[in-house]
Amino acid sequence: NGWPDTFGIPGRMTPEYAALARISLDDARSRKLMAIAGISSVIATAVIAAIGDISRFASPRGDLAEARAR
After folding, report:
1. Which pLDDT belongs to residue 37?
2. Fewer beta carbons within 10 Å, N or C terminal of the chain?
3. The three-state (H, E, C) secondary structure of the chain, written as one string
4. Residue numbers of the chain with a pLDDT score lower than 50
5. Residue 17 buriedness (CB in 10 A; 0-12 / 13-18 / 19+)
6. Measured in Å, how far apart are the chain's first and last C-alpha atoms?
7. Residue 68: what pLDDT?
8. pTM
9. Within a 10 A sphere around the Cβ of 16, how many other Cβ atoms?
10. Which among 17, 19, 18, 47 is positioned nearest to 32, based on CA atoms?
11. Strand partners of residue 13
């Protein structure tokens, strides 16, 4: 069912996991990521936290494409 085991009871969601899932569902970026097969609310939140503000990238390929062009 995709939920972590809690105290040996498969499928029982912890309050922390439930809170994270609610937060993720409220964020459009998280919902887009979770539309990809295998991306859970935990993974989506971690990716968003690691990337930060996406507008800091000039393009989808970012500085790597600019470096290759030189």
Report:
1. 92
2. C
3. CCCCCECCECCCCCHHHHHHHHHHHHCHHHHHHHCCCCCCHHHHHHHHHHHCCHHHCCCCCHHHHHHHHC
4. 1
5. middle
6. 49
7. 59
8. 0.58
9. 9
10. 47
11. none
